[in-house]
Amino acid sequence: MDLAIHLDSTSKIPLYQQLTEKIRGAVLEGRLKPNQKLPSSRSLAKSLTISRSTVTQSYEQLESEGYLETRHGSGTYVCHQIPDEWLKSQPIEPVTSKIAKASTLSQLGKSLISIESLELSEPDYAISFSYGNPASKYFPMEQWRKILARHCQNSPALLNYAADAAGYFPLRVEIANYLGRSRAVRCTPEQVIIVNGSQQALDLIARGILDSGDWVAMEDPGYLGARHCFMGQCANLQPIAVNSDGLDVEVLSQYHQKFKLVHVTPSHQFPTGVTMSLPQRIALLQWAQKTDSLIIEDDYDSEYRYGEQPIPALQGMDRSQSVIYIGTFSKILFPSLRIGYLVVPPSLISLVTTAKWLCDRFSPILEQYALTDWMGEGHFERHIRRMRHIYDLRRQTLVKALKEYFGSRVTIFGENAGIHLMVKIETVLPDDIVIEKAAAAGIGLISARGYYLQPPQHQGEFIFGYAQLEESEIEQGILKLSQILEQMKDEGG
Ligand SMILES: Cc1ncc(COP(=O)(O)O)c(C=O)c1O
């Protein structure tokens, strides 16, 4: 069989690529039919006066694309069903419309598409009070790099599947010891399970414990990362107001539905920043025991506490296996590390470990090895002490500037811990107008409004993250903000 093919030996396009395109075109135009035999590589090479390996390379490429097939002992053929013909036989329908068809989705899928898009990045502001990231500038990257490099050299076991889904055991030992010392958490290393940040901890718990229609109590305002996990499972969410003692357990006790979970951030309530008082903690533990509910204690930034002594974790006070404790390294090392952990009651170790395995087998091992050394060699607690001092100065500057420039028009919440605080500014202006004006002046601001399940009547609650800002930037930013609000007031706002 002769193939009417002309190749241009002067072209920059390699001959094998030209040949591939010509044969593919002949198949698509129907000049070569399904099941039609092609010339042998030897005879085609001879007729085109090219090397045989050029033809072989081209045939192999088209085989991998599904246009040709080799039949052993017989030769090379056009496939009986060619890919583009298959595509042509399909209805012309945008892929998205199929995905969006609710009938094709699981219950989880349906709730996921109903969740509003999660904020991934924010515009570049000259001064951003956005919350979340620690001061990455101070992270001792060189020291971290050396520890990572050490393990890259000596650890062939790093490269294979043989890792424990619950995490690298020596790291779990370090974490159990650290939590015992610093948070009065009482656990064995076996109860510590390493995950990809607290977010994965919340997701695994939600999936392992909640069925559609189950009730979950949440602090209001509260953490969106947790709310979305519970919504994903189609749980019913019951907002519980937060007062100056944290989640109001008296209000919680008045509800009669059976709660499977309650999510709390007792060390530094997110976003208000209040610390749950000891009496509230005791009341919450008693409530959980009485109602047979599980408490998720999300201890996301308790390492940073200024002045007063931390109140021991709920987990350490619990005597009825009612608490799942969650911690993260995001605020101490850096969030893209994606290492967090759960401390689960013994009865949940196997469930959470299996859920973790199914999700992604285990968290990356190199970083777990390095983190174990970083903790074991004392760098971890040294870094916390150093950062606590830096954040404390920034926090003091922020509080001072707010008081100086806003006077009695501000109320500051939750300044004793963490790397953000919440502020209520007396204003009748809607939050989005304030945010818009601030953004136009190069200041990034977050309203607390979106964190409420039951949006409040009042305006003017904002979250101020300060970890990444120099003291001079904090001062300037607050001054500018006060000027903007003053100007809006003068303009009748
Ligand atoms: C209440 C709360 N929990 C947990 C986290 C940390 O999440 P991750 O460990 O997934 O980075 C945050 C992050 O900002 C948070 O605000």
Overview of the molecule:
The chain is an alpha/beta fold. The protein folds into three domains: 15-88, Winged helix-like DNA-binding domain superfamily/Winged helix DNA-binding domain (Arc Repressor Mutant, subunit A, Orthogonal Bundle), CATH 1.10.10; 156-377, Aspartate Aminotransferase, domain 2, CATH 3.40.640.10; 382-490, Aspartate Aminotransferase, domain 1 (Alpha-Beta Complex), CATH 3.90.1150.10. 43% of the residues lie in helices and 14% in strands. The chain is built from 18 helices and 16 strands. The chain has helices at 15-28, 41-48, 52-65, 83-89, 95-100, 107-114, 141-154, 169-183, 197-209, 224-232, 249-254, 278-291, 314-317, 349-360, 365-376, 379-406, 431-440, 471-490, and strands at 68-71, 75-78, 127-128, 192-195, 215-220, 236-243, 246-247, 259-264, 294-298, 323-328, 340-343, 410-413, 420-425, 443-444, 446-447, 461-465. Helix 12 links the parallel strand 8 and strand 9. It is elongated and about 90 Å long. The mean pLDDT is 91. Bound molecules: pyridoxal-5'-phosphate. Pyridoxal-5'-phosphate binds at residues 132, 197-199, 223, 225, 265, 270, 298, 300, 328, 330, 335, 340. Pyridoxal-5'-phosphate binds next to helix 9.
